[in-house]
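Project outcomes to date are best conveyed with an example. Our students and postdoctoral researchers have been running inverse folding experiments weekly, and each run begins with a structure described purely in tokens. The record below, which covers 91 residues, was selected by the lab manager from last quarter's runs and is presented without edits.
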């Protein structure tokens, strides 16, 4: 189970309208759950990492598209795959 919007806003300290804009642009795709007459968004760990990274670049002054591209490079770049695939030396 993911985290909901208020928790994400507190954790990352991103304005709500900027978070929703990332969703509108398709950069993140939270799961939407309807309870009664209210709709709630739930964000996966992957969504949270994306938002954190995109927000970091937005705060540095990059436009949304460039911030998203840089975040995706950072999150999926070769250095990350090297870290994930690293195996301890047997020696």
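After processing, the design step wrote out the following sequence:
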């Amino acid at each position: 189970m993911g985290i909901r919007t208020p928790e994400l806003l507190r954790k990352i300290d991103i304005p709500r309208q900027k978070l929703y804009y990332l969703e509108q642009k398709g950069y993140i795709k939270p799961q939407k759950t309807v309870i009664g007459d209210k709709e709630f968004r739930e964000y996966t760990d992957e969504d949270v990492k994306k938002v954190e990274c995109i927000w970091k670049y937005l705060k540095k002054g990059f436009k949304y598209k460039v911030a998203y591209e840089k975040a995706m490079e950072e999150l999926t770049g070769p250095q990350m795959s090297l870290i994930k695939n690293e195996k301890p030396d047997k020696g």
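The chain has a mean pLDDT of 87. The beta strands are 3-4, 31-35, 38-43. The training component of this project remains on track.
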